[in-house]
Backbone:
């Protein structure tokens, strides 16, 4: 196995997870079925505080279904979820949010006709003593969190439909971390973004990592994964092929795991070479 070098122009590394630290989230033996079809079969993955786990695999591999079990959108049939070593029950999205697990879907789930502060507090609005919306307090809080995540963001008063893709991602990420997220699931965060906006979102992810938040990064973009992840978990037809340290594999080896559904130790050099 050969070490993967960081890509040219990559941002400096941020502090990584502490070796041996108790996982922020651990999923053990997760099974999810739809009718008679097993979409996720006996999968175990974990993420430590300040760690990015790249969750990769082809279409239908089960990675999004696995994350829906964690987010409470489609609870697992069997298996166990632990946070900081303690078993927890996640039956719905509210359970996940109350535990500090936030999910940022590819669609972002933003209300297009509302500005950033309204989206940040959507469903959790701040009220005045007169029980009216406290727009000033919500904008102040939004300015503080955006100042931490993206100091260049200044478009607080316009509906988010007029923001760029990268700015919309910043709003969705700010909404997640403002409410004390401990783990964030990100589903294809750079899909359909241009190079400049992709770089912006990557920097936001590094910022979250540096603040000790564990991140599951679901992505088809192998370059995103190698740029951002500490470890990479590969899924194939609903099962976990294996989890590898990013620094100990090449992109070709991970692609071999994705395409052939074989653990790293069972991939031959000829099979990896044949991918070209």
Residues:
């Amino acid at each position: 196995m050969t070490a993967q070098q960081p890509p040219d122009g990559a941002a400096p590394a941020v502090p990584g997870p502490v070796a041996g630290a108790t996982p922020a989230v651990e999923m053990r033996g997760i099974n999810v079925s739809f009718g008679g079809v097993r979409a996720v079969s006996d999968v175990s993955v974990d993420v430590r505080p300040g760690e990015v786990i790249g969750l990769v695999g082809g279409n239908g591999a089960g990675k999004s279904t696995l994350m829906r079990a964690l987010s409470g959108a489609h609870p697992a049939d069997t298996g166990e979820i632990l946070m900081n070593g303690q078993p927890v029950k996640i039956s719905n999205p509210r359970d996940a949010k109350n535990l500090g697990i936030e999910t940022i879907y590819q669609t972002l789930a933003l209300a297009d006709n509302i500005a950033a502060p309204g989206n940040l507090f959507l469903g959790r609005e701040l009220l005045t003593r007169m029980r009216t919306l406290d727009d000033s307090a919500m904008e102040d809080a939004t300015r503080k969190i955006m100042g931490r995540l993206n100091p260049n963001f200044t478009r607080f008063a316009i509906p988010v439909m007029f923001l760029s893709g990268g700015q919309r991602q910043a709003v969705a990420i700010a909404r997640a971390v403002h409410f004390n997220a401990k783990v964030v699931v990100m589903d294809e965060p750079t899909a359909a973004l241009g190079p400049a906006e992709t770089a912006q979102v990557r920097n936001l992810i590094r910022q979250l990592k540096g603040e000790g938040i564990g991140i599951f990064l679901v992505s088809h973009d192998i370059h995103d994964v190698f740029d951002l992840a500490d470890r990479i978990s590969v899924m194939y037809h609903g099962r976990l092929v294996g989890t590898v340290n990013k620094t100990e594999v090449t992109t070709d080896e991970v692609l071999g795991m994705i395409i052939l559904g074989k653990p790293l130790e069972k991939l031959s050099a000829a099979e990896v070479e044949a991918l070209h």
The CA atoms of residues 90 and 183 lie 14 Å apart. The chain is about 30% helix and 20% strand. The domain at 44-112+181-273 is CATH 3.40.50.300 (Rossmann fold). Strands lie at 25-34, 37-47, 52-56, 78-83, 86-88, 101-104, 183-187, 214-218, 231-236, 239-245.
